[in-house]
Batch of 3 targets.
Target 1
Amino acid sequence: MITIIATADDYGLTTGMNLAIHDLFQHGALSRASAMATGEALEEGLASIPAHHRHRLGAHLCLIEERPVSPPESIPPLTTPAGHPLPRWQLVKKLLLGQIDPAHVACEVRAQLARLRDLGLTIGHVDGHAHLHVWPSLAPVIREVCREFGIHAFRLPVESLSLSWPDQLAPGRLPIGLAISACATLSRRHYATHAPDRFLGLLHSGHMEERIVANWLTRLRRQGQDHIQVEIMFHPAYAAAIPERVMQTDHGKYAFDAEMQVMRKLPDMIAQANQGRPGPTLCLNAHGAAC
């Protein structure tokens, strides 16, 4: 059996993302979601999510674009001189120039995990906004802080190219995806023993289509081995409930409605892929729909 783990990112960032994830949990189309301790809608979401779904929320560590949990003066390289969060590429530039002290990263990661814990979450898994948790100089620091919190499940975003050789990618997505996969490969020793066996969704991040996911499922059955786990990353949301501030980031390029449609159909797509084709059986993770 091949277990599909359907993960939704960015829980708590906006009301539109929270509502979409709540609905997908209710429809049995989602295995788990990753919550942002820095998200402006986090507490609002946690106040309305059904209790039996709270344990399916992990941590989506965020070092960019959103206000940090730590006081800005305690983590100066991670904010602007005015104390505002760094844009994505400014942080990457600082990392490349060796201007980020891992101790400051550890401080903010610790604060984010503590906030999620204090809000009542049992953090089952960890991944990262823009996948910065696999940046080679940050991975050992983040892994060590997670150990302090007893967290041992992670995302390793190495795209399975044999399953998802790209077609109709958003402009610039291929080099970005390959760069993130390379970083994840370099950081594999910190995360691999506690991550799903395969990962999909990096190259088509924010631009999922039914055809793409159906191809993945078919190829998994043809190429897959029994008893492996495959994480598929999604970004569902109701775009009408996302503030303009967030839409001005990379999220403004995402096809949220298309991702919602694909996710609603995911249990049926898995059932269809299992019919009349050779190969191991596909199953959505038990937290989502039954096999």
Target 2
Amino acid sequence: MTTVGILGGGQLARMMALAGAPLGVRFLVMDSAADACAGQFAPMVVGDYRDHAALTEFASRVDVATFDFENVPAESARWLSGRIDVYPNPHALAIAQDRLAEKTLFGELGIPVPPFAAVDSLQSLEAAVARIGLPAILKTRRLGYDGKGQFRIRSRSDVAGAWAALGAQAPRVGLILEGFVHFERELSVVAVRSRSGEFRAWPVTENWHVDGVLSASLAPAQVDEAIAQQAVAHAERLASALDYVGVFALELFLRDGSLLANELAPRVHNSGHWTIEGSETSQFENHLRAVLGRPLGDTRMRGIACMLNWVGELPEADAVLGEPGGHWHDYGKSPRDGRKVGHATLCADDAALLGNPLRRVGQRLGREEQVAPVIERLGG
């Protein structure tokens, strides 16, 4: 029986293990936290990702390795790749970990991006602001996620404050200034590429964020077919250039009928959780199929789906489970502010049948604001 090693033991690893069970796959998880939630479903090696002794034990017990979050040190993935197969490849991981390298690659591939500039001093920040204009966002090049490691600069008077907030991190993780995008919609393409180069994508998804954290996703996104095709084409070009194997998400902004790339997530992705119930093959199963060298599954949808993300604490499950097409996912985590603790997915045959269940769930849970933008997009 094949054993897949997963670097990172969060909810993505947990859902990967659940998806792999019907395939007859075993798992070994490595995480620095002994209480990582994937450990409830798979044995674990507890250790630092840079600890070669822990990595050696991990490598000796698995046939192939992958990861469930993008901040696994790329050098650790490279070290492992000298001993076992690692997918996605460490180069793709390294590119995704550096916003400057990522944006540069997008540009080289002809994928439009907002204006950006590397920043390593207050003087270079001031020069970048003068060139790019305001508003803009100063970000760490590495380690930032879910809105962390960012400072929005609205006026010249904010420049010194932005440097004071993030400048000390410049020598360690680097900084980048990006032009602020007054977008109309946030979209993502969740896609998969196999070892042989076969590429498939799920329908383009629209996403809504609150304080930088995903709140809701709707698939398929209610956008023109030409926009959806262009988004998938960007994702395919990126996957080919990186010789990528596995599932990834390309996050995009839609503005004035044009797409701008935001970032690459080199892993199964929050905006693809709806695929578990809403598509023929989930992102988690297809990721495993890809890294194991097996045929990819169909990515067609079974109607329409909305994913609601639960952050901080879980609401009452029965409000969702009482709905036709309602599905509940508890990540087995203790409640904590800002922590992703679960999600729900509501599925229906078409858009006209999804609005009322969403409205009822929002009312019963006191989360009308969370479901309102999705209902509005559905025309309700």
Target 3
Amino acid sequence: MLDFITEKVNSWDYLRSCGLPVFIYGMGDGANKILRVFEEKGIACAGFFASDEFVRGHSFKGHLVHKLSEIEAAVKEFVIVLAFGAGYDSLYNRIMDISQRHILIAPDVPVVGDGLFTYEYCLANSDKLRRVYDMLADDLSRRTFADVINFRISGKPCYLHRCTVPRSDIFNGIISLDENEEYIDMGAYNGDTVREFVNITGGKYKRIFALEPDSRNYKKLTANTADIPRLHTFNAAAWDTDGEGEFSDRSGRNARLSNEGQRIKRIPLLRGDSLTENATIIKMDVEGAEMQAIKGCASSLKNGAKLICALYHRNEDIFEIPLAVHEMNPNLKLYIRHLLYIPAWETNLYAV
């Protein structure tokens, strides 16, 4: 019984039946994904708006892009659908302020893969969801797990707002570091999380291994970390075998293994265990390849390595990844936290 799931009306069903004009906030890939679901579900889009600084005569899908104030002046009551991610304070606060004045829905569409995260999807995977809920290490993890699931069903940002914790809570309450750490950063981007690790340890650690597959990001990584000692960087992707794979290059922070896109190239694939089987902490944010990356770090995880792993790229990640880690090493305690972000793109597993 999934008693921790209280939302049973999917965001898409609400949008189809609410009887109010539906305006999409944002343009780009997120809006395109949402429009595809709108077409599938028979949801009408009344128009688009963007933040004031982006409204300069733009059009999107044949619609003039408005300011919110223009829609407010013309339409008495309407629903807003958020079509982009908000991960910094000023934008997040703006969205939460809008949600106090209007009905605002942030519908869940997977970053990678197909299908939708709905109440019916939860029922179909109820045994796995229940197992994860019961194995989590503390009450906050269970509340966060429930809030994120209820958000993904309903699209209501209040669920994320109430379970968001500051980033400092992770290293002050869950993960502790010392001078004996061997750190693998999978999906190192521009070096921000490498720098965070160095700052937290005060520069006292054994070694750092950083993997970044995107060529532009990799240049930023090497430039931004040139002063960091005992750091080994690799223009490669994390996987469960060593070899080569096709990669959609220059996709920014969301770069991933794919044979679709404008710039496809072959890049090295590396197991974490090929770098070291004695990693003490591993971070994975690898755009949907987390399950393969976990398998590639089996030796370190079985030896008790601490793990930070994204749970939001694929629909199934929120239950399949914790179950896989638990099966690999049942002695690891599993925590879930959500950092500031709408939608649930900063929901992570912490295993210690």
